Amino acid sequence: MKIKAFRMKKLFTVVSLTGGYCELNCSHCRAKYIRSMLPAPGPRLPRILDALARRGVRGILLSGGWTREGILPVEPYLDALVEAKRRHGFVFNIHLGLETRREVLKRVAEFADIIDYEFTLSKWMVNAVRGLPFSPTRYLEALDAMLDTGLDVVPHVFLWHPGSSRELLRREIAEIVDRGVKKLNLLVYMPPEGDVDARIAEELKGLASYVRELYPWEIYLGCMRPRAARQVLDSYVIEEGIVARIANPSLNATRLHSGKLEFYDACCSVPSKYLDLFREENNGVRSGGGMVAGRGFEPRSRGPEPRILDR
Q1: What's the pTM value of the predicted model, to 2 decimals?
Q2: pLDDT in tens, 64-123
Q3: Is 80 exceeded by the pLDDT of residue 186?
Q4: Which phi and psi angles does 109 have, rounded to 5°?
Q5: Strands 59-63 and 153-160
Q6: DSSP string covering 151-212, please?
Q7: How deeply is 284 buried, as exposed, middle or buried, from its count of CB atoms within 10 A (0-12, 13-18, 19+)?
Q8: CB 248, CB 6: distance < 8 Å
Q9: Rounded to whole angstroms, how far apart are CA atoms 252 and 208?
Q10: Spatial distance between the Cα atoms of 120 and 12, rounded to a whole number of angstroms
């Protein structure tokens, strides 16, 4: 069976509900990633979604800046998103953050097909990087609330970050396995300076194999991983059959393993039942698409320009 490779180009795009603004302003990002997304704050959202539908977009990742409580402020947009789902049939996935309110989660379930959920039990990640004033157990509480509401959740776990260890990784995977979540997305921390050293990049191979031993279901390799990690890790997880899906495989990995890959113009978390909507007709080795090869979560194009969308 071929490994599914994903690169956003025309059929899928990323929208920030907060534009370039983030209350949390985490130390490793400082809102730079959301500034590369299509901004759709406030009353602009319905017009932008209508314009995207006219341009043939079929799927949208809803993201944006978090509040100081670690939550995407989606509540003001719920009615508009439910209506867009009804009118256009978009495949929606969303970065909700640490949302636990059942009334909000039930409304999200009316339009969202998948929840991309960054999961960690690292105090370093929660308190030092995110600057959140609570324990990592809040991440478990949010995961449980989403699952209890019936949402389809893909936990995203950091294969490596400066505060990580094998024991931490083992505990994180164990919590996901205990809850029967059958999809897992692996990330690699993007340092503020933009890359990791060669020693860490090499260690990622052993960590990926370790996760494969611990986790019995589908593993994805997500788009957040530095250039050095891509050069080492991408070919390895394809060769070893560790992952079922990979976002933005490096150009070298694509050339070496083109016969093992089938390409989709979408986010790698898209539910299997929708994949045919996003299959690329030409599964060539060109790396062009929505993401810049080797640079992590940085869309090459953030979609239609706002001046066009607001007409």
Answers
A1: 0.89
A2: 989 999 999 999 999 999 999 999 999 999 999 999 999 999 999 999 999 999 999 999
A3: yes
A4: -65, -15
A5: unpaired
A6: --EEEEEEEE-TT--HHHHHHHHHHHHHTT--EEEEEE---TTS---HHHHHHHHHHHHHHH
A7: exposed
A8: yes
A9: 19
A10: 27
What are the structural domain ranges in the chain? 3-309
Is the pLDDT at 295 greater than 70? The verdict is no
Cβ pair 238, 216 in contact under 8 A: no
- Cα–chain center distance at 265: 14
Contact 185, 268 (CB under 8 A): yes
pLDDT top residue among 227 and 195 = 227
CA distances to 179, 246, 256, 289 from 239, rounded to whole Å, are 29, 12, 10, 23
Distance CA 142, CA 52 (A): 31
Written as six digits, the tokens of 47 are 């017009």
Checking phi first, is residue 216 left (phi over 0); if not, alpha (psi -120 to 50) or beta? alpha
Q: Count CB atoms within 10 A of the CB of residue 42.
A: 11
Per-residue pLDDT band at 192 (split at 50, 70, 90): confident
Q: CATH classification of 3-309 is 3.40.50, yes or no?
A: no
Written as one string, the DSSP assignment of the chain is: -PEEEE--SSSEEEEETTTT--SS--TTTTTTTGGGSEE--TTHHHHHHHHHHHTT--EEEEE----TTSB---GGGHHHHHHHHHHH--EEEE--BS---HHHHHHHTTT-SEEEEE----HIIIIIIS--SS-THHHHHHHHHHHHTT--EEEEEEEE-TT--HHHHHHHHHHHHHTT--EEEEEE---TTS---HHHHHHHHHHHHHHHHH--SEEEE-S---HHHHHHHHHHHHHTT--SEEES--HHHHHHTGGGEEEESS-TT--GGGGGGGB-S---S---SSB-TTSSS-BS--SS-HHHHT-
